[in-house]
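pasting for the record
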Amino acid sequence: MADTKDELAGVVDLFGGLARDELEQALVELAFKQGKKVEREAFAAEIERAVEDYYLVKAEYAADGGAEATDTLLVAGPAAFPTVPENGEDLPHILDVPDRELDREGLGEAVADRLYEEARTVAATGDADRAQALLDVSYDLEAWAPVETDEVRETLDRAFE
């Protein structure tokens, strides 16, 4: 099983992106390969923390190539250093997950929008610890996707005042 947020990102990165239920199934399979017994539900909180901290990000994906029906996938985010956990390299041979093409530029813009909105909230509340974490993510995001986050940093400066 993945023990860190970077390992969660590593599992997702093996496939390019996974739906939440696919990630949970991958983690169950990984735990089995590692000789650990866990319940699928045990992963929910870890996945949520990884999303909250930008180790995983949500991406909208048109499953059939059309614009109407979309699925939400989790992909390795800007704060992650994806690390494949022990036995993780076997997962693509175990799970039947289709190949998916993601719009990385659009994903970067969506993450930048989310980061900006969260920065506004953090600046309004004056939460300096979360502001520092988001400031780090703003730099990671610029390296991860072709986006600018100067406005996010300017907004976060208010939390430090």
